[in-house]
């Protein structure tokens, strides 16, 4: 097994185990090894590396959701939702569903979180509007 295959395998294994933070930590090693390849080796490894990078991007986007949600930035959450949906579809179409199930389940849990954050934000806004109306009545 070549060095790039070993790093790709390790990164994908971590993703399949749900160890997303550890998989993200492998990015630098993946980049370093890929950069050291010859042009022919890069061409041969490109599809595998691009796929792993898509998986890592999805992990990062899902992690980003939680940070954006803390700020309460619903428009940014909507944009991230679209990006996550697009990456999820790309990943699912390129691999067998079982091969990427853990990652896609992780992204799916994010979608539920997104819905909950939006519902909470709208409920707060509606409450504040009604509270203002009640205060004006008195």
In short:
With 138 residues, the chain is mainly α.
Describe the 3D structure.
The protein has about 140 residues and is an all-alpha fold. The chain has helices spanning about 5-15, 20-25, 25-35, 40-70, 75-95, 100-135. The longest helix is centred in the last third of the chain and has 37 residues, at about 100-135. It is elongated.
Query: Count of DSSP helices?
Result: 6
Nearest-integer average pLDDT:
83
Order of helices and strands: HHHHHH
Q: What's the end-to-end separation, in Å?
A: 76 Å
- Supply Rg: 20 Å
The assigned structural class equals: mainly alpha
Give the strand content: under 5%
Model regions low in confidence, pLDDT < 50 over at least 5 residues? none
User: What best-fitting shape do the alpha-carbon axes yield?
Assistant: elongated
Considering the chains and any ligands shown, give keywords for the structure.
138 residues; 6 helices; 87% helix; mainly alpha
Helix and strand arrangement:
Blueprint: H1 3-16, H2 20-25, H3 27-35, H4 39-71, H5 74-94, H6 101-137
């Amino acid at each position: 097994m070549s060095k790039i295959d070993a790093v790709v395998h390790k990164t994908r294994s971590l993703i399949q185990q749900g160890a997303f933070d550890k998989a993200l930590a492998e990015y630098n090693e993946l980049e370093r090894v890929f950069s050291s390849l010859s042009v022919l080796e890069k061409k041969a490894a490109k599809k595998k590396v691009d796929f792993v990078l898509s998986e890592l991007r999805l992990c990062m986007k899902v992690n980003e959701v939680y940070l954006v949600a803390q700020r309460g930035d619903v428009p940014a959450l909507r944009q991230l939702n679209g990006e996550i949906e697009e990456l999820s579809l790309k990943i699912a179409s390129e691999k067998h569903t079982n091969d990427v199930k853990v990652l896609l389940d992780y992204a799916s849990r994010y979608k539920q979180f997104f819905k909950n954050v939006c519902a909470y934000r709208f409920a707060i806004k509606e409450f504040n509007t009604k509270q203002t109306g009640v205060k004006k009545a008195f």
